[in-house]
Amino acid sequence: MKWDDLKTDWQAHTPAIDLPDAEADIVKRVRQHAGRFERRIRTRDWLETIAAVIVAIVFGFVFLMPELGWLTRAGILLVLVSCVFIVWRLHSVRTRYAHEPDCSTADLLDVEILRLDDQIRLLGSIFWWYLAPLGTGVILIVFGKHGWSWFSLTYAVAVIAAYAGIYYLNQKAVQKELQPRRRELATMLESITATEQPPGHNSTDTQ
Amino acid sequence: MTGDMTGDMTGKEEIFLQMLRDNESRLKRVCRIYAPDAESRRDLYQEILVQAWRSLPGFEGKSQPGTWIYRIALNTALTQKRSRAARPELLQRDPELHHAANASQPAEKAETDERLDALFDAIADLPDMDKALVLLHLDDTSYRDIAGILGISESNVGVKLHRIRRQLTDKLEEQAS
Predict the structure, then answer these.
(1) What does the mean pLDDT of chain B come to?
(2) Chosen from A17, A33, A37, A188 to mutate, greatest number of chain B CBs within 10 A
(3) Residues ≥6 apart with Cβ < 8 Å to A189
(4) Nearest beta carbon to residue B54 from set A34, A103, A187
(5) What is the pLDDT of residues A179-204, one digit of tens each?
């Protein structure tokens, strides 16, 4: 088998991929896809910010009411601080590991692994930075307003159950998606950066 | 082609299309290797085009356009979501092989097609990074450019390619016998 012949055949071969033939259609389609991608990112960022602003306005307004007890005020403050922190935390993880699509593959894999590590840490500790402060804040508000009542207790149990579900789903995502993906990328990086020993000292494998 | 991206959108489109015309076959071969079926190949190809389009304003012409777009293609193929990850056993043979050497005799063409199919199948069995190395090598990319695209040393490229070529040769000869 001659590699030069294989190379010649290889380079002459164009696999069939079903795409619009006209160049104008290709550009149009690519623009649409790129536009959709950017709109999706913008929408996601805007929705997070708008949700945080709405929470801040509503709870900020309630916080200013004179008749509130200290327990409710503490709960509201906790919710407000949590919202700002959550938005900042999500935004910082997304933007910290940006890379150019044309960087070298080893650099790309390095960055992707760091990003996944951060996401795994983020979801692994979701109880501390998301669920606990937000849930505690909401429960404090209800207890501050209704005192020790069946309503407050039922509400607290419902919040805890819902948050336990969120926690479970996030840990499942870490185990089923993020960790396998991280292992896959780490294997790729290791296989490409590992220095292999040449087969004997007489290797003259040049192009 | 120059790396000047200061032109209007028509200029950008023209540069983009020229890159596509020059590298269409290479990009499609990347898709053929990394995606298991026709639908995934089309998705991957479109994703590569979208990434190239979005990255085009940052292309400064420091590397050859072919090298630049190859980086984007490989990086996209390696990092895209693997919901339909390439599974070698599911790789389908090309229903239609488009060779430039269409003028060759049918028997010769069939033999070439068979050889290429065997090569594609053998490459599909390799680990992802070995696939990238051999793709670049078969496309006559210099060791220096391969090293730059993958982010490893030139000597490492040589040693790895030596091993991969031996693996592929063994496999192809085993299939042929």
Answers:
(1) 79
(2) A17
(3) A106, A109, A110, A113
(4) A34
(5) 999 999 999 898 888 877 776 655 44
